[in-house]
Design goal:
Rossmann fold; 2 domains; two-stranded parallel ribbon; alpha/beta; 379 residues; single chain
Length: 379
């Protein structure tokens, strides 16, 4: 276990053994898929090899930081033709192709059909399972990186693969779970849990459920109520929020972290990807792009020239939501230039990106001022 830090192991305590078993089982899944799942025997499905444990330790090293799920792209090629999982894999690829960016998240989602197929094979063979039927997940990322969209997609995919009974998706935040009077939070949280039964309970900004150094906050009661049902896997619980805050939230409760087997880290959108999202939105609204703009990279270069990476990924801009701002600014420029036109030109996009640049500049200056003020106060 030299691959994880002593501090991380101490914080997880006995949960490290559970996590290592989960990661070794992921490695075993990949190995079994490579060798052909139809040839899998009960003995093979029941045996974790030393290579699985070694790879599990490598995956566990990722757990001490961001814990990205492993890719199932290669294993997916070996799903038996005609199986529900193989059909789902084809549908999955079409859906993923429509998503811009999110490469590490897509890699993890591609593993879903093969993981569920292997669970069914294990069950049919009478081989042991380690409770991976619970698809509880942690989504870490800044605002506007697609966490809610992917959570809804995951719920639909789990239903189509038979892992959950329905496509029910209940989205909540702290205010939907936590009451302001003693004894009411448990009841309020239980109502949402029951509403999500058979599907997915998605808790956005889940880290707000616990207030550091507060003994009187009722958020912990909501966490305790949710944990009661997590061992059953119904509903599937997906929690989301900023990476640092979510890591602190998970570490605040020794039993909470080990109940989440799957963790996906959502990267910020790159300027070229925001350009692609803009182009998609424009096309959906019936607008075209002039030939010199028919490329997300070109739009990304304009955006990168006028705005800062810090602003684009901030809550003020919101990653993919920058494309929405870009669209409205370009539309305003197009309307002023040629009200009857339905084609955005390079000049329209330059004007749009300059307008966004002003917003970025103002935000950057405010952040610099706040940082300077904070440094002066500390000094």
């Amino acid at each position: 276990m030299a691959s994880t830090s002593p501090e991380w192991r101490a914080m997880r305590n006995g949960g490290v053994a559970d996590l290592l078993l989960q990661r070794a089982a992921k490695a075993q899944d990949a190995r079994l898929m490579r060798s052909g799942p139809n040839q899998m025997s009960k003995r093979a499905a029941s045996t974790i090899e030393i290579e699985d444990v070694l790879l599990g330790c490598t995956l566990l090293q990722g757990s001490s930081e961001t814990d990205q799920s492993t890719s199932g792209a290669a294993e997916a090629q070996r799903l038996p033709a005609g199986s529900p999982e193989a059909r789902m894999q084809s549908d999955l690829e079409l859906e993923l192709a429509r998503m811009v960016g999110l490469a590490p998240v897509k890699a993890a989602l591609r593993a879903l059909p093969s993981s569920i197929y292997l669970e069914k094979r294990r069950s049919a063979l009478g081989a042991p399972c380690i409770g991976r039927s619970a698809w509880h997940s942690v989504f870490m990322g800044k605002p506007g990186v697609g966490k809610t969209k992917v959570a809804r997609f995951l719920g639909r995919a789990l239903h189509q693969l038979g892992a959950v009974r329905s496509e029910r998706f209940v989205e909540v935040q702290r205010r939907d779970l936590v009451a302001d009077k003693v004894g009411q939070t448990g009841v309020k949280t239980r109502e949402k849990i029951e509403e999500a039964k058979g599907g997915v309970l998605f808790i956005d900004e889940a880290y707000t459920l616990t207030v550091p150094h507060s003994e009187k906050d009722f958020g912990r009661e909501a966490v305790d109520e949710i944990m009661k049902d997590m061992l059953s896997g119904d509903p599937v619980v997906i929690i989301a929020g900023y990476p640092a805050e979510m890591a602190h939230f998970l570490h605040s409760n020794a039993g909470l972290a080990r109940r989440f087997e799957h963790t996906l880290t959502f990267p910020d959108y790159q300027p070229s990807e925001i350009g692609q999202i803009f182009a998609i939105k424009a096309a959906e609204a019936g607008f075209g792009l002039s030939p010199e703009l028919d490329d997300g990279a070109c739009l990304g270069e304009l955006l990168e020239m006028h705005t800062s990476a810090e602003w684009r990924s901030s809550p003020a801009a919101g990653n993919a939501r920058v494309a929405e701002r870009m669209y409205h600014a370009a539309y305003d420029a197009l309307t002023r230039r040629s009200p009857q036109s339905s084609t955005f030109t390079m000049d329209d996009l330059r004007m749009a990106c300059k307008a966004l640049g002003e917003l970025s500049k103002q935000w950057d200056e405010r952040e610099l001022e706040l940082t300077s003020t904070s440094a002066d106060a500390d000094g």
